[in-house]
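SEQUENCE WITH STRUCTURE:
===
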Amino acid sequence: MTTNPAMGVLLHAIGGLAAASFYAPLKKIQRWSWETYWLVMGVAAWLIAPWIVALGTTQNLFRVLSLSSSREIVLCLIFGMAWGVGNLTFGMSVRYLGMSLGYSVVLGFCMVVGTLAPPIVSGEISAVLSTASGQVIVGGVMVCLVGILLCGIAGVSREREQRAGLEPDPDTEFSPVKGFGLAAMAGILSACFAFGLAAGKPIATRSIEQGTAVIFSNNAVLVVVLLGGLISNAAWC
């Protein structure tokens, strides 16, 4: 399979923009509880959108899923539910830290744990660090972590300045202790998404056998993993 680094970077940039802006519309909703608008967003993002994309890109999607073993489906659901808890704590950390500080802290944890946990658990971290590309990736993670730390410091300063210029709001939910704890949990559990994709690799292979393009083969796995995420979030909400 040929590689296209430029296209990969472009897709990452688009994904990063989407991930960085998804919470913004939720901040405009004033009369709903946090759990209500979080669940509405979750149904759209983890149920409706994945099925639309999977149905449009996967050959014989229902047959692929019906041929999958119960173990494969259950493992994808379990890892998806664990990732869902991480996603839930991500949203709640933004709730308690604010968007600027919340995003900085959560993305720091998610990036470090999500990038390094899978090769550590699989025992491949030594092989990764033994290659030039692996060393560059790990070095890039460290550089980005420093940048996110600086963004976090800037976010704290900005929110302090905003609070100093406004009357105290009795309804404010700002809580650094809760926020940082939830951000750490979100980072740790973020790796479960990668574990879910790994558990669903036989499903992706089966999708390819049914005629799905390799680049879209994981879409059949995503509908199961994201369903698990929706279950854990819906249970909380």
Notes: The chain has a mean pLDDT of 84. The radius of gyration is 19 Å.
